[in-house]
Amino acid sequence: QVQLVESGGGLVQAGGSLRLSCAASGRTFGSHAMGWFRRAPGKERELAASISWSGVTTYYSDSIKGRFTISRDNAKNTVYLQMNSLKPEDTAVYYCAASETHRQLIAGTVNYWGQGTQVTVSS
Description:
It is a single chain. By secondary structure, this protein is mostly beta strands. 4% of the residues lie in helices and 50% in strands. The protein contains one helix and eleven strands, in the order βββββββββαββ. Strands 2, 4, 5, 6, 9, 10 and 11 form a seven-stranded mixed beta sheet that branches. β4 and β5 form a beta hairpin. The longest helix has 5 residues. The protein starts with a strand and ends with a strand.
């Protein structure tokens, strides 16, 4: 069992930065692929970024590529999403997610979800 708790969301002006953190409990964190999904108002939830259990492989959606960076620290059971050059269209609830494999996560098969953290970018 893995429990995920996000933090770091908030209100920021366009062009600013935020760093989201997701703290995981459970001794299997290091074997799970991790990701950040987001749901913007009126839109479907989408995968923004993901990272394999080893941290070697990452995935970014086209809308955030070059602006966001996902990373993980398995010693601290934590995954991060550094968000730079934020735009109003990045406004969404961001969810941390864990899957047994990176391929499953990218396909949208998620074993564990966090409760979500709100990110609001003002213009």
